[in-house]
Amino acid sequence: MFTGIIEGLGIIKQIRSSGQGNVLVIESDLPLKQVKLGDSISVNGACLTVVNLEGKRFTIDMSQETYNITTFPRARVGDRVNIERALRLSDRLDGHLVSGHVDGVGVIKNRANMGKMTIVTIQVPVSISRQMIIKGSVAVDGISLTINNCSEDSFDICIIPHTAILTTIGFKKTGDYVNIETDMIGKYVEQFILKKKTEDTDIAKSKIDMDFLAKAGFF
Asked: pLDDT: is 199 or 46 the higher one?
């Protein structure tokens, strides 16, 4: 579990295939003294497992599922990535609850300056946008952000200078792809509603009614 408050940046030093998955070697500007083998670490919003540590470099294994659903197929050696260590139960929750399970990929459609702020518009599939609300939370490449506006196929976020300096969102360009994770509360609400509709439909289609029960001798 993470908060979406990025702790540092890293540079991809190596990408290689490994069986049914992929291996990434990342050099971090974040001190790794508190990181140990087997720990979870968020890289551009994807929860991954540390399998090797060498100084400022760490190696992560990535399943084919994670590789397919994220922006990592487009990643190249030299790319910068956002890094966050796993949340401790004693930590303050400054962002929002981020699982590190990326829902899909969005593409930056527009960047517009508004004073010191930058408004970024990101296009996403309907399967992702339907879990969004205005003023709700979203993780973009692992960064906890607030949704300003949202439509069927896109949403807007406001980037303050502090966030632009400390994360990769500051140098992302129009046309760049980003990992998206919607607020987990929205996912639960959506599933509850879908299940309720299914249950109501099943009851409506049921042939068991008062006449059936009477003929069966229940009363």
From this structure: 46
